[in-house]
Amino acid sequence: MAAKGACLNHVSRESSDIRRLAEFYKEILGFEEVETPDFGFKVIWLSLPSTGFFLHLIERLPEARLPEGPYSASSPTVDPKYLPRGHHVCFSISNFDSFVQTLKEKGIETFQRALPNGKVKQIFFFDPDGNGVEVASREDP
Length: 141
Hints:
This protein is of the alpha/beta class. It contains two helices and eight strands. The protein folds into two domains: 8-59, 2,3-Dihydroxybiphenyl 1,2-Dioxygenase, domain 1, CATH 3.10.180.10; 77-141, 2,3-Dihydroxybiphenyl 1,2-Dioxygenase, domain 1, CATH 3.10.180. The N and C termini lie far apart (35 Å). Residues 7-138 form the VOC domain.
């Protein structure tokens, strides 16, 4: 039998600079830092207010030899137009147009499009570690 009542709890991202990554998600998407248990290594937990969604930022373990994000911050920048078909995490927001303006003001390279129905707008970009991020428009009820 499949799990009952499953819901998304958190997404984790590893980084060689979790503080830089935390500041990005706090500034760009409004995450808040929350109490983090002591795991014996550096971790920062972020919460998206009133959603129950968490982002766990974990210090990279160099000897594990896990790959960096899909497009490492130390690699040449890859065009975000490829993100709709690549690995990314998506957030929905109600202030889409002003959010897009904020990304432009911060000099963040983006790819923007609307779904064929014209009702949902999307913008794709990379976080400082090269992880794909999508933000989609949402109308509040």
